[in-house]
Design brief:
Catalytic activity: Cleavage of a beta-linked Asp residue from the N-terminus of a polypeptide
Keywords: Autocatalytic cleavage, Hydrolase, Protease
Subunit structure: Heterotetramer of two alpha and two beta chains arranged as a dimer of alpha/beta heterodimers.
GO molecular function, one term: asparaginase activity
Number of strands: 14
Radius of gyration: 18 Å
Oligomer: single chain
Structural class: alpha+beta
EC number: 3.4.19.5
Distance between the termini: 34 Å
Shape: globular
């Protein structure tokens, strides 16, 4: 019997001018989710059940960019995506293009458990959800007033906005900043803020690792755009050694297969978890901006990021707990 550990994140790339009350609100939610995970692990739930349970909670709260409160596409709609992976047999499930499924991570779990496939998207995923009897809601459920306002901002700036809820110096200033931003994605201008994807990684007492990630994507993204969050090996990965969930610039995470890289350098270079996380953040992202959380089969927990901050929290069975932003 080993020791359990859990980590959660609410996105990498935080506005340095983020209001103090917003920081505290995020910390409270992350702490609440850790408490849910701790209770589940003390009741001996397997890691895969715990990551689903915690990410469902994050999807239900509109604070971060997943489930309710998801970013809006260029057409003002929501297209959500999520993935989940069970380390022991590397079983996985992923979904994209969801517009009515209340908890995308649970549909990803059903793809893993109840279908012969690993990934379903758009109308096919929605049809599967109906057949499985998951809770469906109107697209309007996911849309908040803040997001409608920030989509307007993004369109005025002719840009993709990342941390769309927190303009630096008011509406006009945020639009100007987006237009003048030197940061680019695939050669096109974007704003300086990173997306607030959510994720959870867990190792249980049996040494089983699991990971799950969920997001609404980018504000003002092209319809049909798919990021790293549902891509196994990029945004999410779990194996017999570790579980990893990533967040940040999706295109950079995809190019570097960031989540898989953590497991790969542990396996092939013999690095421990902390060394592996440090290595991939420093050597695999290029100019991309991202972060990740990870656990190992030995009960270790680690996080790393090259952005200004990352909403994160972690705890281990021996009583260690940390919740932070910067």
């Amino acid at each position: 019997m080993g020791a359990w550990a859990i980590a959660v994140h609410g996105g990498a790339g935080v506005d340095p001018n983020l209001p103090k009350e917003r920081q505290e609100e995020a910390k409270r939610l992350l702490t609440h989710c850790l408490d849910i995970g701790i209770s589940a692990l003390r009741c001996n739930l397997p890691a895969i059940d715990v990551v689903e349970l915690v990410v469902r909670e994050l999807e239900t709260d509109p604070l971060f960019n997943s489930g309710r409160g998801s970013a809006l596409t260029e057409n003002g709609t929501v297209e959500m995506e999520a993935s989940i992976m069970d380390g022991p047999k590397r079983r996985c499930g992923a979904v994209s293009g969801l517009s009515t499924v209340k908890n995308p991570v649970s549909l990803a779990r059903l793809v893993m458990d109840k279908s012969p496939h690993s990934y379903l998207a758009f109308s096919g995923a929605e049809d599967f959800a109906k057949k499985q009897g998951v809770e469906l809601v109107d697209n309007e459920y996911f849309i908040t007033d803040d997001n409608v306002g920030m989509l307007k901002l993004a369109k005025e700036a002719n840009s993709i906005l990342f941390d769309y809820r927190i303009p630096t110096v008011g509406t006009c200033g945020a639009g100007a900043a987006a237009m003048e931003s030197p940061l680019q994605m695939n050669g096109l201008p974007i704003s300086v803020y990173a997306p607030e994807t959510v994720g959870c990684v867990v190792v249980d007492k049996e040494g089983r690792c699991a990971a799950a990630t969920s997001t609404g994507g980018l504000m003002n993204k092209m319809t049909g755009r798919i990021g790293d969050s549902p891509l196994i090996g990029s945004g999410t990965y779990a194996c017999d050694l570790c579980g990893v969930s990533c967040t940040g610039e999706g295109e950079a995470i995809i190019r570097s297969t960031l989540a898989r890289e953590v497991g790969a350098v542990m396996e092939y270079k013999g690095l421990n978890l902390h060394e592996a996380v440090d290595f991939v953040i420093k050597n695999r992202l290029g100019e991309g901006k991202a972060g990740l959380i990870a656990v190992s089969k030995n009960g270790e927990v680690a996080c790393g990021f090259n952005t200004t901050g990352m909403f994160r929290g972690c705890t281990t069975e021996d009583g260690f707990m940390e919740v932070g932003v910067w």
